[in-house]
Amino acid sequence: MLGVELVEVLKTQLECCSDSELAKKVGLTPGRISQIRAKRQRLEARYVGDFLGRAFAAGKESAFRSAIRPVVEFFPVEVANIRQNGRNMPFDPNGDGGRALATRLRSPHGLYAFYNSQAEIIYFGKAVKQSLYAEMINVFNRNIPHLQVYSVKHPWGRFASRNNGELRRIKSRPVKLSTVAAYFSAYDIEPYLISALEALFIRLVPNDIINVRIEKKDMKAFVEPEI
Question: What are the DSSP calls for 73-122, one per residue?
């Protein structure tokens, strides 16, 4: 194989438009790529193998660097007055900045988290089949059985006195995220990493608030520890 053939094959396989882009992906300088291209004699198999090994390692590193892309972090929740299909929204998708954020969340899949006012995670989840936007809106309006607060249940959420002056009971009840969430974060993640990263995070922070589905098939992504 000639040097020019090797360069062109790699550019095609790595989807590079220029030699400089190829150099960046394989961890070499543009000058070194030019030297390889200019070689007139056929390259030895050992040379080609070494070059491909470097290209593979650099390409893998580049892929992992770009596999996790933060969309938004600790964005303050402000329950919007508008409703879509009768659901509360964690932000106004038609407001200043909200339209751009909604657009950014509608395409990717990945991981997201909701926090309380103390910046503690109260729900952590993944969006695989649905977009981050759709999944987060659904969870935001869902009663979370393991997320409970003490409250007094008034009719339609409004105060109404009883004839006998009896106080209504204070009781621990499951609540929707929309009533307690104060911030949220979202990350656009390559599909092959979503479930494994979710499972890893839940193992690192194994409390009953984050997610009750801690260990299932996704944990097969990890080898059982020796100790």
Answer: EEEEP---SS-BTTB--SS-TTSTTHHHHHHHHHS--EEEEEE-TTS-EE
Which of 5-9, 53-57, 66-70, 151-155 comes out lowest in average pLDDT? 53-57
Q: What is the mean pLDDT of the segment spanning 128-134? A: 94
Residue 138 is encoded by which pair of tokens?
């659904």
Burial class from Cβ neighbours inside 10 Å (0-12, 13-18, 19+) for residue 81 reads exposed
* Residue range 101-129, pLDDT digits in tens: 999 999 999 999 999 999 888 889 999 99
Beta bridge partners of 75: 184
Sequence-distant (≥ 6) Cβ neighbours of residue 191 within 8 angstroms: 109, 128
Closest CA to 179 of 206, 136, 140: 140
Task: Give Cα separations from 123 to 90, 112, 129, 176, 182 (angstroms).
Answer: 14, 8, 18, 11, 12
What gap in Å lies between CA 84 and CA 133, rounded to an integer?
A: 13
Residue 174 phi, psi dihedral angles, 5° rounding: -65, 145
3-state secondary structure of 161: coil
- Separation of alpha carbons 114 and 186, rounded Å: 9
Handedness of CA 77, 84, 155, 145 (dihedral sign): negative
Q: Phi and psi (nearest 5°) for 173?
A: -135, 150
pTM: 0.67
